[in-house]
Amino acid sequence: MGTSMLVAPPTFTLVAPALFLGNARAAGATELLQRSGITLCVNVSRLQPGPSAPGVAELRVPVFDDPHEDLLVHLEPTCAAMEAAVRAGGACLVYCKNGRSRSAAVCTAYLMRYRGLSLERAFQVGASGAGPAFEGGWASCSRHRCTRLCRAFGKRHPTTPEDLPEKPRDPSQAL
Fold this sequence. Notes:
Pfam families: DSPc (PF00782)
Number of domains: 1
GO molecular function: protein serine/threonine phosphatase activity; protein tyrosine phosphatase activity
CATH superfamily: Protein tyrosine phosphatase superfamily
Signal peptide: 1-26
Mean pLDDT: 76
CATH architecture: Alpha-Beta Complex
Low-confidence stretches: 155-175
Number of strands: 5
Family: Belongs to the protein-tyrosine phosphatase family. Non-receptor class dual specificity subfamily.
Radius of gyration: 16 Å
CATH topology: Protein-Tyrosine Phosphatase, Chain A
Order of helices and strands: EEHHEEHEHHHH
Oligomer: single chain
Structural class: alpha/beta
Helix content: 40-55%
Largest sheet: 5 strands, mixed
Number of helices: 7
Strand content: 5-15%
Organism: Marmota marmota marmota
Shape: globular
CATH class: Alpha Beta
């Protein structure tokens, strides 16, 4: 007697205009990529497959999901490539295996660098767009990695790790 496994269709969520967050399965959803206007997939992994959709480029950020991996060294060129794709009229899908920690960190860095948001505001935007996936990614990022991200990309960085937000705050609050 066999059992059938139900598999959810690959999806990704809009974090901000022209910026999507997803998992590795989403990169293989050719029709969904094309319908969403995605021209660049940022693959934040060493092992996950890239997109196969025509007209969709891949930028691989070769890091494992390990807090000791130095994601920071990849952020400047990665965010610059993302911005170039957006300025050319495209959109970006940022993904890793599960669409949480590494990809959420890259989305946060992009929002800080090219949209001029503080770390806290970038998190709020991401969490309001992508919801639990983004929040889960934030929770799984180490405080050390987030503090380094702040210092490298933020306009205002926290003075202590306790200044980093744990969860989204009310977007109506002034930053």
